[in-house]
Amino acid sequence: MKTDVKKYLAKGGAEFKLKDFSTSYNGHLDKTAGKEALSCVKEELKAYQEILYAADSHAILIIFQAMDAAGKDSAIEHVMSGLNPQGCQVHSFKTPNSEEYSHDFLWRHYKALPERGKIGIHNRSHYENVLVCKVHPTYILSENIPDYNNVEKIDKQFWKDRYESIRNFEKHLVANGTIILKFFLHVSKEEQKQRFLDRIEDPSKNWKFSVGDLKERALWDKYMTAYEEAIKETSTDYAPWYVIPADKKWYARLAISEVIGDALKSLNLKYPVLPKEESDQLTAIKAQLNDEK
User: Fold this and answer.
1) Can you tell me the distance from the alpha carbon of 63 to that of 120, in angstroms, rounded to the nearest whole number?
2) Alpha helices of the chain — where are they, by DSSP H?
3) Computed from CA positions of residues 95, 132, 233, 59, in that sequence, does the dihedral angle turn out positive or negative?
4) What's the pTM value of the predicted model, to 2 decimals?
5) Span 72-128, pLDDT tens digits
6) Residue ranges of domains in the chain, CATH in brackets
């Protein structure tokens, strides 16, 4: 059973509200059916990836953003497990280092973009600069931007300009052959609490939990506002956001894989056809090989 991927599509603009998107929707499937469907979609992705690589005309940039414990890492692991690792690049962005702070906020993300024929996955992304930085505006001061030497100067116009920079950045990428798919894993506060408790109670998962996670959880409402504003400002026809229900990890993985599959299918890519001269050469080589004793 295939789900309707348009259900997760976030249309940008003033009407967008996160509350209009469910965190627990499961496509009327159970876990067993969901896993079986995912297995089928992964086979399709594998076939699409091979054609993508052979055609060498487009790159795919997949962006994952979410609150802690929403399932980004496991989604990447499960959805991409059937792909050829030589055609994938995964980047997990942490706090910028001194070199990265010495450049504009998009610099390190531009460096990590996938080349044509490949799939690039950004676990967190340039959107951290309008999410965590918006919740903690003091982080902006580390960028040493001229005329922004105190938090009071980081006003609405600053964020408006930053959203515009992101839209222009993504528009440029799309114009040059990169397909951008942005996923917000929409987990409920109640489910996050349970996953935190699971990490604490299971010794093998203790390493996943940080005291800092609890501090960020206390700012939940501010983060939801930041996500809503970011999606509202940057979900475009050329680089859409998809709000994925993430309370059930198995369903989130299926939904993500189907969105990626539909995007690849829509490209109508074909295997390259060799020029006649090269085709004739292959025919001659084939005959030569068959004549070998």
Assistant:
1) 8
2) 31-55, 72-80, 98-101, 107-111, 132-135, 156-175, 189-201, 211-217, 220-234, 249-266, 276-290
3) positive
4) 0.94
5) 999 999 888 889 988 999 999 999 999 999 999 999 999 999 999 999 999 999 999
6) 5-290 (3.40.50.300)
